[in-house]
Write a structure and sequence with these properties.
The complex is a heterotrimer of chains A (260), B (153) and C (228). Chain A has 260 residues and is an all-alpha fold. Chain A is built from 9 helices and no strands. In chain A, 85% of the residues lie in helices and 0% in strands. The chains are: A mainly alpha (260), B alpha/beta (153), C alpha+beta (228).
């Protein structure tokens, strides 16, 4: 019995220790003035993290938008409100699905890639070599990836939303025959610049920070073995996903609070 | 190994695409700036209840959007809501007894202000207040139905 | 189906309309008018079954001095008023008046001992020739129905009402929309004369004896706000 308590205590302390290390990683990566090569590093990372994620984002966005339009149309048609499908799909995407799905996909694709890369560097002693040469690995490895993540993900979310709405329009207007004026007009009347788009973007920026942070840290903190790499990558995906979903719930409560 | 130049170009294109999507979302999806081709003038209206009406709700006449709600204030002394509307300059000559009613748009839709022009000779000028109003109620369709049975139909 | 209570409620449309010739400020006008009308109603309960037309005439007599039917009708005709000839305007005004009296006259009989408060004005007039008078009707179940009368000062120095808002519902706008719908209805061919005749016809078809309450009204005072 006592043994289990001890294990629980150990686990809790480990966890808190990890949080502490993670905070330090974040802090020391963000600190420090930009150096000459930093922009090049950043651009390269934005390419790796953002541009290479485009395919999965665009394909998913289109499918999701189309499916939302299909399902939404069926349900709304029952009460004769098909024209509202544009508005309904747009609201769902801008407020929830856009940030969350992009976050999940990003965590899975870009997040795991970041973790794997850094974990591999750790396992092959590249990080310690850098330190010995007087190069700050946090500055050269972690920081560009953190910033790249925070820049790329919001852009990806914007693209996701736009493509998804486009997909929904294709299905709704061109295929299912919803009136174009009603589709877009209803959407424009009902979608608010700040309330829907703005708050959705705030979510996405927060998700981006959390995912990038977890991804970089897990790589940094990994055990320098092949299994360690695999464990770290898995952790990134799992923790990021859970964090995105939990954060989404909290943010939704806070932002759209009047639920009575 | 991909060349640095290709990377730079693709990153630039990526950022550009993101910005274009933002523009698309702003103008085509949320309707920022729709219908502001001509100038506008201001009309106010006082209601006893504006539940559900928001800033940027539309103002319509005969089903056509002719303006937007710019501001919703309150006169706590009199217990009234004061709605400030921006009306398109294309719509002139609204008589002073024009009616303003808060109605609900369809199924998922929100509230909007519906104007019905009156029969007086004097016209509303910019800054005037519409006093012939009806606030937000749930009974409107029921009432119209009732009146319809007893009235001219 | 609308309950009796609502019909009776609309009937108070006419409550504010009756008045004395020497009425001064708008609140007094409404108060006096309400008193006169209630008197007519009390008497009317005794002879309505035998002579409904007399009742309607009585109501109209007390209403005439103080409802500005011309303005009321102008507001209902709205944009079509400008297109109408003086004859058409007068015809509609008369039709409108008769219509109101006949439609809601019988329901007035359901008025029993509801408490009616005409509230003193709590704010200064925003314009010298316009005012609003507020009235509260307390139904037997304790519900309070607010009524707002839009008053205007006529050229003869008399205050008269030209619109009414009952329980939040602006009757002027509602009638205006009805009129406009009638003008656009295909069977009326957009003709003012037809719409005006239609209005009168519909009213004529409402047989006063059969009007209103299915729950047996043989002159026995049923609970005015009883059902629904």
């Amino acid at each position: 019995m006592l043994r289990y308590l001890r294990l629980l205590g150990q686990w809790a302390l480990d966890w808190i220790g990890a949080l502490g290390r993670a905070t330090l990683v974040w802090f020391w990566s963000m600190a420090g003035l930009p150096q000459r090569d930093d922009l090049k590093l950043l651009v390269r990372q934005v390419y790796q993290i953002g541009v290479l994620s485009l395919i999965i984002i665009i394909l998913s966005a289109f499918s999701i938008g189309a499916v939302l339009a299909l399902q939404g149309y069926t349900q709304l048609a029952r009460v004769g409100a098909e024209e509202s499908v544009g508005l309904g799909v747009a609201l769902v995407l801008l407020r929830e699905l856009g940030p969350v799905v992009t976050g999940l996909l990003f965590a899975g694709r870009a997040g795991s890639a970041i973790t794997a890369e850094i974990a591999l560097m750790k396992a092959t002693d590249q990080l310690s070599s850098m330190e010995m040469m007087g190069v700050d690995p946090l500055h050269r490895i972690a920081a560009p990836r953190l910033w790249a993540g925070m820049i790329s993900m919001p852009l990806l979310t914007l693209i996701f939303n736009a493509v998804a709405i486009g997909g929904a329009a294709l299905v709704g207007v061109d295929w299912l025959g919803v009136d174009q004026g009603g589709f877009w007009g209803g959407m424009q009347d009902g979608v608010e610049w700040w309330d829907d788009i703005g708050k959705g973007m705030i979510k996405t920026v927060l998700f981006a920070m959390v995912i990038s942070w977890i991804a970089v840290f897990q790589g940094y903190d990994s055990t320098p073995t092949p299994e360690g790499m695999s464990i770290a990558t898995t952790k990134t995906v799992v923790y990021s996903s859970v964090a995105v979903l939990a954060l989404d719930f909290i943010l939704t409560l806070v932002m759209y609070g009047e639920f009575k | 190994m991909i060349r640095m130049r290709t990377i730079e170009i693709s990153v630039g294109a990526f950022v550009l695409a993101g910005i274009l999507c933002l523009v698309f979302l702003a103008f085509r999806v949320s309707g920022v700036g729709v219908g502001s081709t001509s100038g506008t003038y201001t009309l106010l209206a006082k209601f006893d209840d504006v539940a559900g009406l928001r800033v940027r709700s539309k103002v319509s006449l005969a089903g056509v959007t002719i303006g937007r709600v710019a501001k919703i204030g309150v006169d706590s002394e009199l217990g009234e809501a004061i709605v400030t509307m921006e009306i398109s300059d294309d719509v002139q000559n609204l008589p002073i007894d024009t009616g303003a009613r808060i109605q609900t748009e369809g199924f998922l839709g929100g509230r909007y202000v519906s104007l019905s022009p009156g029969g007086e000779d004097k016209m509303l000028k910019s800054g005037d207040t519409i006093t012939n109003t009806q606030g937000a109620i749930g009974l409107e369709s029921l009432i119209d139905q009732f009146i319809g049975k007893m009235g001219s139909k | 189906m609308m309950g009796k209570s609502m019909v009776a409620l609309f009937a108070c449309l006419l409550l504010g309309g009756a008045a004395r010739a020497d009425a001064a400020d708008p609140t007094t006008v409404i108060r006096n008018g309400t008193d006169s009308l209630l008197k007519v109603i009390t008497e009317g309960k005794t002879y309505f079954d035998k002579d409904p037309d007399r009742f309607y005439a009585e109501i109209q007599r007390v209403l005439d001095p103080t409802v500005d039917f011309a303005k009321f009708a102008q507001g209902v005709m709205a944009v079509y008023y400008k297109r109408a000839t003086p004859t058409q305007r007068e015809r509609f005004q008369a039709t409108f008046k008769t219509g109101l009296v006949r439609t809601y006259g019988k329901a007035l009989l359901d008025f029993g001992d509801e408490k009616i408060d005409v509230l003193p004005s709590d704010r200064p007039r925003e314009q010298p020739d316009r005012d609003v008078v507020k009235m509260e009707i307390h139904s037997k179940e304790g519900k309070v129905y607010p009524v707002l009368y839009s008053m205007r000062l006529g050229d003869d120095g008399q205050w008269r009402m030209y619109n009414i808002v009952i329980n939040g519902i602006n009757m002027g706008i509602t009638y205006r929309n009805q009129f406009a719908s009638a003008m656009k209805a295909p069977e009326n061919h957009g003709s003012l004369d037809e719409v005006i005749s239609q209005w009168a016809e519909t009213i004529a078809h409402i047989d006063p004896a059969k009007q209103g309450n299915p729950e047996g009204s043989n002159g026995t005072t049923t609970d005015a706000a009883g059902d629904e």
